Amino acid sequence: MYLLSFAFPFVGSACTQGTATDREWLLRYFGLFTAFGSYSDFATLKSNFHGHDSLDLFSAEALAQLTVQSKTIYSPSAIQKVLEVIRNKEEPLHHLTAFLEDFNTFVLKSSDFLGSTKVRETMLMMTAEIIFPQITDMSLEDTSTWLHRLHVLLPHVNATVLELLPLSMPCPYYQAL
Prior knowledge:
Elements: H1 2-11, H2 22-29, H3 39-45, H4 60-69, H5 76-88, H6 92-109, H7 117-131, H8 140-149, H9 159-162, H10 171-176
């Protein structure tokens, strides 16, 4: 966020007086502009910032940063909360696209992030719940693009995940999977 990059050298840290939670702090000092900030900017401005009470205020990109930088990636229940926020946003596929693009970049830098089988299973199940019901409305090319975004999770496909696929899905879509 330009504002944070510009302001930090001059003020050194953000005012946190009178705010008990990260959510209060974000709403008081950034309001709707919170959606334009990065998780790392907020963590820089507020040394004890975690953001877990503010997930719905963040952009998909900031959620991807939070997932990796705050160690959320090591907790199945925490990653589930992040993906629930994405699922509940207006246009969840748009937000999931942005989240996965940034998340995959982080994962490529460090394979340790997906060390937990339970986290991978949770992520795959939650993303499948968002994507699979809409597959029949997508072109085969869009479906292939989605599957590529999920490439770090697809090795963990199981019968439970496959049950989420619509039975009316054409055969080439199954072949793409």
